[in-house]
Design goal:
By secondary structure, the protein is mainly beta. Helices cover 14% and strands 47% of the residues. It has one domain (24-146).
Length: 148
């Protein structure tokens, strides 16, 4: 390019493209892992399968944790799916969109307990907690993880 005006225009276009925000591609489908953990305030063991959520579970006043179930849910954009919980309630997981930073926005709801929207990075988790079990003092925690 020997024309200085053409060269400056070309360089300006390259700089504009380089500075433009990169929009994350919205995957048509995401996979979410739903774990159900029973927690007790009594001293007892911590199931090794819940160790990866230990930092989040330590925020609560429970001492022992047992993995009750795990289920993988594949969701189309705009879709939702329900997972039964041992206390008779249902967790509904919906995939709504991808944020500009690439995080996936999920809608999570347990009837009568919680309804929220979360934004998770790939491999990220959020722990829903509190639904009591009908047989005693134990409660359920529901870690929800967006697969990588």
């Amino acid at each position: 390019m020997t024309n200085p005006l053409l060269r400056r225009t070309f360089l300006a276009l390259l700089l504009a493209l380089a500075a433009a925000p990169v929009l994350a591609e919205e995957p048509a489908k995401v996979t979410v892992e739903v774990n159900v953990v029973e927690a007790s305030k009594k001293d007892g063991p911590v199931d090794p399968r819940v160790k990866r959520f230990q930092d989040q579970l330590d925020d609560f006043a429970y001492k022992s944790f047992k993995l009750v179930s795990e289920e993988k849910v594949s969701l189309q954009k705009g879709g939702k799916q329900s997972v039964g919980l041992p206390n008779g309630k249902t967790l509904t997981v919906g995939y709504t969109k991808v944020d500009k930073d690439g995080r996936v926005r999920l809608r999570l709801a347990i009837d009568g307990v919680v309804s929220t929207s979360v934004s998770l990075a790939r491999g990220g988790s959020v722990v829903l907690g509190g639904p009591a079990l009908p047989h005693g003092e134990n409660v359920l925690f529901v870690p929800v993880t967006l697969e990588k």
